[in-house]
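hey so i finally got around to running both of the ones u sent me last week. sorry it took forever, my laptop kept dying halfway thru and i had to restart like 3 times lol. anyway pasting them below in the order u listed, first the sequence line then the structure token line for each. didnt double check formatting much so if smth looks off just lmk and ill redo it

first one:
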Amino acid sequence: MIFFDLPAQRQHGYLFSDFAGSVGATYQPASIADSPYKLDLNLVDLNYYLTSNIASLQNTEGGRGFVRFINQDQKFLHANVQAGMGLMLSLPRKQGINIRYGVRAIGSNGSISPNLVASITRFDNQEWVNSSYIGEAIQFNLGMWQELAFTYAGVLKDDGFHRWKSGITIKGINPMAGAWIDLTNTNYTIDGVGNSLFSQFDVRAGYSESLSRFESFDGIDPMGIPRGTGFKPAADIGLVYERVAFRPAPKNSAGTSLERDITYEFRLGISITDIGWMTFETAAASFSSNTLQPGIGVVDFDSFFDGLNSFRQLRDSLETIVVAEDVTGNFTVSLPTALNLNYDYNSGDNWYINIAAQVDLTPLMPVDYRINYPTSVALTPRYETANRGLYLPIFYNLEGDMDVGVGVRYGPITIGTQSLGGIFSKEKTSGGAFFSVNLRQLKANSAKPYCFGRSRTGSAFVRTERTPIYKRKKFLVF
């Protein structure tokens, strides 16, 4: 049984842009150094993404429902959701700070065997009778937490040709919920009528004490929000190199020209995000087993899932075939620690092309269970100016999931989806959406020549100065 809170994955098409402001700092802390914004007030940011190759959502004769795939592809299930708000402020000397609060949840899998996940609850179908299976597994972990984050970023060096930026985010992580199912090394034979004979059944399953009051999943009582266990430290770090572009802007009759908000020809970035882990107290119903009940014969395993309305009832049902032991003490769950690599090219006509790679680092975390973003690559062409943008992310993860999305930013509103297939496909295997509302003020943006020297006649030297002669709109609305 999988504990799944319908959470899902961040994949903003605009996340890699300097115009992402406060939200962009969650991916690359250094991005807010020398930001085009004087301030960016992120009133709300909502995002979810869900993908799986276990089943697709289809219209069937019995109505709309999930239809499982029957094939030998290795199965995956990933989901995440987040909601947040933040405030980014630019400081003198090309520095910036960002304060964010958010709630995040991620569900991700380990090994999921194609035969077991396709046949469970329907062993009596002709596809499965009179067959044997060895080493079948289902592994899935869930984590949910609050976070309060402070980011500082600055320009390390800018010689007019090369610009280096760095940033660090210090977080307080408040773990709210954790759950896991770890069914491994399961060997069984299905007879001609769909009954099962197990020779090995290794299982470990449970959840955090914070979920104990939600143990029943009969849908009668409201779920509410799990209580946190107290803030623990975590961090993000980032480094950016920019090759400064020299593309002169035309001057008007007064000799004033608008300076570009994005001044690099190309940018390389590296960051490590979500460095840390959560600790939970194990709930009393959690259990493990690697021993079958003595003398166990063939059983109708499909019936074990009939009429269940709590995790404890699931455990009681399984104890008729396995010897279950209580799991006590604390358990740890990783944050979705990831290495992020990014290349962004500025064509100079408001078109950009971005290539981003995300590498799962959670195997390096000293934890009991892992939640993660799958290792992936994203290609995002985009068109954007100060108050509008169009984003076309193409996303592929190494588990075999590929999605094409679209995003639009206009004034304070950004909206989009990570999965156009989730909207238009008849067989839906993924879905996602993101939405944010920001009040933003751009920095003054003009260059006016002025003279200085003892004579004040202009015969000395001439410089250009960034001045507020060109009045920006106080806030980008529409």
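and the second one:
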Amino acid sequence: MKLILLVLLITVPIIGLFAQNSTSSPYSGFGIGELETAAGGRNAGMGETGIALRSGLFFNSANPASLTSIEPQSFLLDMGFNFKYTQMESSSKKANVNDGNLSWLQIGFPISKKFFGGLTLNPKSSVGYNIYTSKTIDGTSVNYPSIYEGTGGLSEAAVLLAWKLTKNISLGVKSGYIWGNVTQTLSQSIDVSSTTYQIDQEDNIHYSGGYFNAGTQISIPFNSRMSMVLGGIAGISSRLTGETSTTITKTYSSTSEVISSDVLSSGSMKLPLDLGVGISLNFKNKLITTVDLKKCNWKDATLDFNPNKLTTNNSFRGGIEYSPKYDRQSLRQTIKYRMGYRYESGYLKLYNNQIHEQAFSIGLGIPIRKDRSYANFSLELGTRGTKAAHLIQENFVKFNCSFNLWERWFIKRQID
């Protein structure tokens, strides 16, 4: 308990890190940015699966119904970090970038024998890009540079509630709030009669809005050695509001003046319907295999203040976790070995090219503090985008680290 309280005290002052951008992708300038995944440390090593995963030791926010697997009188905390190295490549140029951020903070606990609760805080999307172009004024040979820059992102906080309907059937709901700021700046400069004029236009969009989704899991025991879990999730379509503030500044001869500054409150965005199903097989608590299929219909989402074309994102995710025979005296025997794969068709479609993404992952769950808390490490190698139509292909390596801490709470002391 002391360790968990210490982690919370350390974490609270750095919650502001969620507002920092953790990407350098030019694709983050479209839609609401680069979407983040934050289901938990175990999930990251298994291809970001989780719709049909259950465990009393690992927090899984991919399906709120999974909270019913938390053991009585226990408390779970999962805090994760990530570091990402990306090589960006077009048909003519290459660039390397490094990014990192706090990935998630999640806690789960039983409320009663039938009800379970949880709280999550994590990034929803990240925006971070810097693009340089040069244009020519029509009818002249005069070039002027243009720099497009974007920063910021969205965060989400959610409350989870799960109900154990029967011994093998669980229901869960997740209600959350999304907020954040995205700043997009266009800087243009031109030389006229030995004087350099620079025009900066800064658009700041503040997003806010709530959402709601639900999930279910059905456990089917075949015998003492094998069982199966079926899972499903559904996110109800909701709407984000956006307040846009635009400032235009002119700079010349060391003089800067604001040309215009106004606030527009007419923007809104419809979040898409999100559907997913999953299945997992558990063999003697040693080998777990799981597969998820998801469909998120961004094609019907409307983005009043940023009219970029979005499309339907279909995803396939699969994962395996292997746990050798348990032996308290052998660290090797208690390590959990993980592997996974995921494919995302992508929610952006640019120049008739859907920006798809795929990645392979491997991971380890290393026990700490005896056998019920784990340090989780995973490495993901993937690719995103394409070099066709003058677009960018991103090859990345992403390292995830999380600490999944388990404590037993609410125990009455007995005095002999």
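quick thing i noticed on the 2nd:
The chain has one domain: 2-408.
anyway thats it, ttyl
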